């Protein structure tokens, strides 16, 4: 990360000695304590910190579970039950990990929606946004592989259906499916592959998160107005103002998380996954976890198998091009009246796709899924480019401080003296 405070500013002699040889302390101080942050960030900006917490929770709980899990088709289901019953606090660790995946996606979808609404993908944050999209795709892959590991009915048949999709790709499809399976059907080699990747890829994800934070600290944070920091009065140090604010939000999120762990630990799972996998019995309705349902609905909305696969992946890939598809010069949706309407229609369409993904692929459900799929892509490819041409935004404030004083996208009153934060961006 760029820049660090001089070693001479450190008070403890041991810290000065270490920092003169490895300037990690001063770099952390510059990037995570003194880092100048817009003073009008609202609570939607706390979900970045929540996501980092959830990543740590998932990695730690996952490592502990891996110590007791047996990746074999004859033992996997039994080993999960053994963890629940015989391992000290195994039930708690498993419920934390299973529900933690859902909480991870709750936070990442809110984080993504905030970025879409406030234009956090626009220049100079294109690389930051692109890394975030890669993180989202990798999260989905990790979550899918984790869903297979209990080796219940939905695990087995979900793996069978989803991996079979790659067979629709011309020329290379069949070899990809055989590699994923480790043979000619979903079986023990498949489970071993998924277990290995599910265990290792979260550490790759952690590396991408580091790059994501690094890319954030180059241009600095976006803010609800979309107006950049222009004077020292527009920014405050990250600590203690946002560490306290983020800490409060994290505590509230942990309480929400704990409700699911202790009072509804199995509610977000599928009942069929508490039945051992049986290749001879097909479940009445095969569905992925709730956080993948919108993309599953898009997949099934297309009559062609290959077309459905292309549409499903295109629904994620289109996010990469969002910085160039949105032609408006105004960053924040708070000052774009027409954009607000279409944004909430888009959110409703995504929720609708999630509902339809959980329904049978028949009748009126398919019709509505096709309508919402069309709107999903139209929002990025038609609506956003045209809004930049025809929309008349509201006047922007001259500075963040002016917006805070007028209540336009401001969050809270800034304590006296906080305005003396340095103007220099990381």
Kindly describe this structure.
This protein is 61% helix and 1% strand. The chain has a two-stranded antiparallel sheet. The protein is globular, with a radius of gyration of 24 Å. Helix 11 (293-301) crosses helix 14 and helix 14 (337-357) runs antiparallel to helix 15. Among the domains are: 1-34, no CATH class; 42-288, Cytochrome Bc1 Complex, Chain C (Up-down Bundle). By secondary structure, the protein is mainly alpha-helical. The protein has 16 helices and 2 strands.
Helix and strand arrangement:
Elements: H1 13-21, H2 24-32, E1 36-38, H3 47-66, H4 76-85, H5 90-118, H6 126-148, H7 153-164, H8 173-181, H9 188-217, E2 235-237, H10 238-263, H11 293-301, H12 305-317, H13 322-325, H14 337-357, H15 363-390, H16 400-406
Helix pairs in contact: 3-5, 3-9, 3-10, 4-5, 5-10, 6-7, 6-9, 11-12, 11-14, 11-15, 14-15
Give a summary of the structure in a few sentences.
This protein is mainly α. Helices cover 61% and strands 1% of the residues. The chain starts with 12 loop residues before the first helix and ends in a 20-residue tail after the last helix.
């Amino acid at each position: 990360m760029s820049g660090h405070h001089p070693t001479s500013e450190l008070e403890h002699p041991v810290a000065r000695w270490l920092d003169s040889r490895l300037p990690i302390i001063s770099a952390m101080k510059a990037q995570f304590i003194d880092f100048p942050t817009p003073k009008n960030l609202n609570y939607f900006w706390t979900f970045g910190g929540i996501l980092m917490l959830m990543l740590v929770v998932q990695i730690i709980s996952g490592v502990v579970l891996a110590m007791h899990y047996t990746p074999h088709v004859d033992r996997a289901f039994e080993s999960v039950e053994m963890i629940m019953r015989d391992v000290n606090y195994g039930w708690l660790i498993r419920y934390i990990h299973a529900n933690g995946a859902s909480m991870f996606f709750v936070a990442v979808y809110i984080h993504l929606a905030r970025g879409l609404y406030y234009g956090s993908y626009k220049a100079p944050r294109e690389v930051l946004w692109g890394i975030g999209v890669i993180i989202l795709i990798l999260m989905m892959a990790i979550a899918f592989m984790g869903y297979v590991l209990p080796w219940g009915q939905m695990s087995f048949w979900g793996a069978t259906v989803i991996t079979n999709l790659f067979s629709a790709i011309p020329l290379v499809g069949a070899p990809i499916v055989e590699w994923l399976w480790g043979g000619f059907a979903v079986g023990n080699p498949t489970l071993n592959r998924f277990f290995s990747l599910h265990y290792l890829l979260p550490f790759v994800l952690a590396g991408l998160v580091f790059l994501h934070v690094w890319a954030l600290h180059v241009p600095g944070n976006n803010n609800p107005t979309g107006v950049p920091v222009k004077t020292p009065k527009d920014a405050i140090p990250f600590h203690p103002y946002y560490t306290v604010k983020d800490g409060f939000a994290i505590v509230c999120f942990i309480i929400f998380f704990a409700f699911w762990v202790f009072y509804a630990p199995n509610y977000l799972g599928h009942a069929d996954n508490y039945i051992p996998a049986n290749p001879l019995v097909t479940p009445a309705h095969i569905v992925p976890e709730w956080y993948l349902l919108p993309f599953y609905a898009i997949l099934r909305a297309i009559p062609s198998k290959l077309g459905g696969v292309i549409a499903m992946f295109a629904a994620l890939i289109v996010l990469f091009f969002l910085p160039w598809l949105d032609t408006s010069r105004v960053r924040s949706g708070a000052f774009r009246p027409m954009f607000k309407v279409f944004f909430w229609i888009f959110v409703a369409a995504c929720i609708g796709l999630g509902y339809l993904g959980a329904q049978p692929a028949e009748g009126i459900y398919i019709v509505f899924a096709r309508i919402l799929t069309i709107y999903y892509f139209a929002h990025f490819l038609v609506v956003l480019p045209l809004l930049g041409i025809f929309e008349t935004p509201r006047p922007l404030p001259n500075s963040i401080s002016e917006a805070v004083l007028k209540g336009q996208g401001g969050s809270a009153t800034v304590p006296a003296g906080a305005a003396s934060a340095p103007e220099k961006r990381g």
